[in-house]
Amino acid sequence: MVTAPSGGFRVNPTALATQAGPPMKITQLSVFVENKPGRLALPCRLLAQAGINIVTLSLADTQQFGILRLIVRDWSRAKEVLERAGLAVNVTEVLAVEVADRPGGLAELLDVLEPAGVNVEYMYAFATRLGDKAVLVFRFDRPEEAIRALAERGMNVLDQVELFARMEKP
Amino acid sequence: MIPGSPLKALSIAPFHPASSLDFLPAEQLRQLQSHRLRQTVRRAYDRVALYRKRLDQRDLRPERICTVEDIALLPLTTKADLREAYPRGMFAATLGEIVRLQASGSVAGKPTVSAFTQHDLNMWTGVLVRALAAFGIRQGDVILNAFGYELFTGGLGFDYGSEALGATVIPVPAGQTDRQIQIMKDFGVSAICCTPSYFLHLIERAEERGVDLSTLPLRVGAFGAEPWTEAMRARIQQSAGIKAYDIYGVSEIIGPGVAAECHAQQGLHVFEDQFYPEIIDPETHQVLPDGQEGELVLTTLTKEAMPLLRFRTRDITALVPEPCPCGRTLRRIRRISRRSDDMFIVRGVNVFPSQIEAALLAVEGTLPHYQIVLTREKGLDEIEVQIEVTPNVFSDRISALENLQQTIARQIEHSLGLRVAVTLVEPHTIPRSEGKARRVIDRRGI
Fold this sequence. Notes:
The structure holds two protein chains of two kinds.
Chain A: E1 2-3, E2 9-10, H1 13-18, E3 25-34, H2 41-49, E4 54-61, E5 65-72, H3 75-84, E6 89-100, H4 105-113, E7 120-130, E8 133-140, H5 143-152, E9 157-158, H6 160-168
Antiparallel strand pairs in A: 1-2, 3-5, 3-6, 4-5, 6-8, 6-9, 7-8
Chain B: H1 6-9, H2 26-47, H3 49-57, H4 79-84, E1 98-107, E2 110-117, H5 118-134, E3 142-145, H6 154-165, E4 168-171, H7 177-187, E5 191-194, H8 196-208, E6 220-223, H9 230-240, E7 243-250, E8 255-261, E9 268-270, E10 275-280, E11 294-300, E12 311-317, E13 319-320, E14 332-333, E15 338-339, E16 344-346, E17 349-351, H10 353-364, E18 370-377, E19 380-388, H11 398-416, E20 420-425, E21 440-442
Parallel strand pairs in B: 3-4, 3-5, 5-6, 6-7, 18-21, 19-20
Antiparallel strand pairs in B: 1-2, 7-8, 8-9, 9-14, 10-11, 11-12, 12-15, 13-14, 16-17, 18-19
Helix pairs in contact in B: 2-3, 5-6, 8-9, 10-11
């Protein structure tokens, strides 16, 4: 592995092939929320009461219901807290990708994925940035392909450890 | 007196010959019924395997049934029996003799079939003529039939009855309100047939368009296919300046025309020369005396294609013991207020919660907690099925959840023949109950 100037780890494609397990994936929780007053506040309040900080989140909505997507540090504890209160919770794996924080940053990334036949099901951003990089969360239909395509072009996929280390930095 | 045209002053029509059957002396009526019952039992035994089996099981020869007093010896027939017999198990006539077949509803894929020979259709027309005549409708009247044809037999029945009466019938199914109001003005419509809730909607719509129905020649309404209260009747009569009559039907028996009110509006006369009524205790099946409330059981006395012996309607009512001021000897039943099962009626179509359950099961593989909410928009009933999201169907993808909603809606529509709205709700939001779950929330304010 080569340490890139940005401070993150650059992924070596060959090294990736020999690695066991998916180190690159981030665990995200999804919560089913009815489109009624107070229903969105409930999961947020429950996590607050349990002392769980929401790292980032996104809300996808239809007329009747929404899906609240959350990234927290201790996802299994958060899941337990929410389920105990009767909420429907799903666990999904997503990828956190570094993107140049300038015009064209995202477009370049998508240009890499399209020829590889990878579809973006949804995405949202982290508020944090370091230097000239932003971090985006992606749900891909074919995450392994995405990792491979991105790594080949030297784009940075952050693992969970690195991601949360980023959060700590001022 | 009702203000308006001279026609409105006549609340009782000249006597129609067909109505003479309503006034048979009691003794003659019983003899006629007994004679017809003997023939029906014979026919059912000879031609319908289910009845032959059940009578043999009880060691009951058809000859043992001599008069209507013996009717309680016969076994009861249920809706489940009819579904089991699909398609032709209850037929007592060949297809060559059957001129009309209709199939309605389906629980777990099995609809109920009704079949008619020409004689049966003539008989049905006959009772409808008597019903319309009892409402004071006659040749020269212009009748708007808004029952529609998705309603099992309702639409066609009133068409036939009106034509046979010699009146002018204009069929315009419910939903084309503006057109109906225009037709009412253009053709001097004097009578209307539809559901009472639809008529209330029509009144409102007419008001919006500046039309006061009480100034039109409209003077009679024949309403049925759903339960409705005296309060609703008063509102209809007041707002539209008409007499509002109740008509009762059972789709497995014949459709509308099993019983109808007379000008006294104190109960519905059962056309018991054709459909013999009994009231039973729904639990013990004991026959109850006149005046006591229970489940209505009907036996067809002349039907050829599908004779039914002691069919359980699941409607709760009582036979009125006193004679009616109109002079008819046909016994009356009180207005139907509820059922002994969980069936409900939406836009004239019978619906069982079990049909919804079967659809959910087919889509999800398990049965989630659900609730059915019934509302009324612009006079038309709407069904909303609320389903709790469970871990095994909750997906992280919006499209997956929307697909689920659509698949469930399609499945339910396929089996009911009615459009429904499907709403996904959070887990544990539908109230649980001990004992019988309250599946249906009816907000139609009947």
